[in-house]
Specification:
Blueprint lengths: L3 E5 L1 H6 E11 L3 H8 L3 E2 L4 E4 L5 E4 L2 E2 L16 E4 L2 H11 L4 E10 L5 E10 L2 H25 L1
Antiparallel strand pairs: 1-8, 2-7, 2-9, 3-6, 4-5, 5-7, 8-9
Length: 153
Amino acid sequence: MAEKIVCRNKKAFHDYSIESTMEAGMVLTGPEVKSLRAGKANLRDGYAQINDRGELMLLNVHISFYTFATHNPNEPMRSRKLLLHKREINKLIGKLREKGLALIPLKIYFNEKGKAKVELGLARGKRQYDKRATLKEQQSDREIQRVMRRNEI
């Protein structure tokens, strides 16, 4: 059984250059897990931040309200604690002190054991001309693939 991807942050790969990725667990309530299993999440403006107590928190991630929840309705935009080892958080603190680096969620998925995980990316913001260069490169790659497919037939 492979991982089941709930949602991806496609905009992140356009706006940022991802330097490294890591996996973190999430502290969720029951209705939030059910919403995730239904695919009701949005990572568009999300980011992760280390608070003053040394905990990693996921902010601005929208997990929709589960319609069949009878009690404890979840707040869709609440901050959620992420689970990482202390030494991993300490490494992140050092890396995030560099100017221009941010920690953003790339995807939310369920692993083989059925646990909800988030893949975080250590990202550096792209400039406008970097974004244009990336788009041109992708278009030229697509064009090369089209020509190669035509020649094979």
